[in-house]
Please model this.
Amino acid sequence: MKNILVVTSGIVAMILSTATFAGPREDLLAQYAAAAKTASFSAARGQALHTQNFSGGKPDTPSCTTCHGKDTRGAGRALTGKTIEPVAVSVAPTRHTDPAKVEKWFKRNCTEVLGRECTAQEKGDWLTFVIGQ
Amino acid sequence: MRIPYRPLAIGLMTLAFSAFVLARAQAGDRHFFAPVTDPVVKEECGSCHLAFAPSMLPARSWQRMMGELDKHFGDNASLDATTAEKIASYLVANAGDAGGQRYSNKLLKGVAPGAAPQRITELPKWVSEHRKVPDWEWRHKEVRTKANCVACHTAAEQGYYEE
Model:
């Protein structure tokens, strides 16, 4: 009887943990939402950010697509000639799952393209956009 | 007298194979620069450009470069202090003038003692090795920059830089 109880509670715990488990991308979104004090991110705004031309950053990288390419599902190319993995989650399932890496590249790339760091709202929008791509 | 064909043939084949491998290894040596093996260095130095072999520059070059990451060839490539230190010590330990790096001496030939060159493509030996590459090839859309070694040296990531 005791055994059955233990096994049942174990199974229940497992089901609960998978049910409440959110991936690292969802955790990041939740973090950005809290920081931006918003409940909603927009893929459309993310797409606009991704394709828009900025003038505040470096002249040779006016937009995200300069290096990442116009097709989110295709490989990009850095100005150094190095290939960049596609940003779209549908073709690169492990993309954006390392929070430190995501933050590092937001910081570096936003500074380069926009001439400033991105806001939590922008990061959330962009991440929502590529998750849906 | 019976001639032992089989052992003879096997022996000859072994000899031929070793000679072939040896010849290749010798030909490769001069243009071999051991690639980065440290996963952190590979990730941090190799995501924007080829993770250049540490033996291509002297230790003092790497020291200077790692101290100026916020102005890294026009980019701000700053890293947190712990990561930067770890990478710097790897690069210094495997630098071209660190002990036992025989072949990179040739690439560092002509570098003034005490100088800390930052661009591998400005080393005198690099320049002379590439003097026959015409301008249009550098401007080719698959090349674009002299730092894009793999465009021509297809096995550069493995450390081989033959023509």
Observations:
- The two ends of chain A are 50 Å apart (CA to CA).
